[in-house]
Amino acid sequence: MATRWKYCAYAAAALAAGAGSAPAWAQKPAEFYAGKTITIVVGHQAGTGFDVYSRVLIRHFGRFIPGNPKMVVQNMPGASGINSANWLFNIAPKDGTVMGTMSQNVPLEPVFGNPKAKFDTGKLIWVGNMESGAGVCGISNQAGINTFADLQKKEVVFGATGATGPLKKSANAVKNLLGAKIRIVGGYRGSASVKQAMAKGEVFGICGLPWSTVKSFWRAELKAGEFKPIIQLSGPKNPELGNIPHANDFIKTDEQRKLFGVIFGAQVLGRSYMLPPRVPADRVAALRKAFMDTMKDPKFLADANKTGIDISPMPGEEVAKLWAEFASTPKPLIEKVKQITLPDVK
Question: Is residue 70 in some structural domain?
Answer without folding.
Answer: yes
